[in-house]
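Q: what sequence does this backbone want?
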């Protein structure tokens, strides 16, 4: 992952994250209107016959395994916890980097296990367990849709085959 920063245009690098059963949880983030942030190849087998041997460019990578340059983190204002305290702060950060002309890469040879929701419940489950948190999540979705409308409507990295 560090090697990708040899290219001065790279602003953030992520790793492929796997569920405990070895299926893919995340191999990059695509944007779409309905779900906003879609994890590429989610639930696919890690040995899927997809040509992702080299680092792939996306609009965003998940914050769970995100590396970035300190000067860029300081330049774009770090992660926006005011508008995105629960979700999307990693996506928002990557999109701010893209606005600066930076590339966002996912290194698929870097595989890490991610025990999703071990530290927090999913946002869908939050609806059942915590109405205040779910309302906050819906507010964050609205904020994403307003702030990144153009990018969500026209993600050049979106591929319906990877959903």
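A:
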């Amino acid at each position: 992952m560090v090697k990708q920063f040899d290219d001065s245009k790279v602003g953030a690098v992520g790793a492929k994250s796997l569920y405990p059963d070895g299926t893919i949880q995340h191999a990059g983030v695509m944007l779409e209107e309905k779900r906003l942030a879609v994890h590429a190849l989610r639930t696919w087998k890690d040995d899927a016959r997809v040509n992702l041997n080299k680092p792939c460019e996306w609009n965003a990578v998940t914050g769970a395994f995100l590396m970035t340059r300190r000067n860029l983190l300081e330049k774009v204002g770090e992660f926006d916890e005011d508008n995105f305290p629960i979700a999307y702060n990693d996506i928002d950060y990557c999109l701010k980097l893209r606005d600066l002309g930076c590339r966002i890469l996912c290194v698929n040879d870097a595989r890490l296990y991610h025990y999703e929701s071990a530290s927090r419940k999913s946002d869908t489950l939050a609806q059942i367990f915590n109405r205040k948190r779910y309302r906050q999540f819906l507010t964050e979705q609205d904020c994403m849709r307003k702030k990144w409308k153009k990018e969500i409507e026209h993600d050049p990295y979106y591929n319906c085959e990877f959903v």
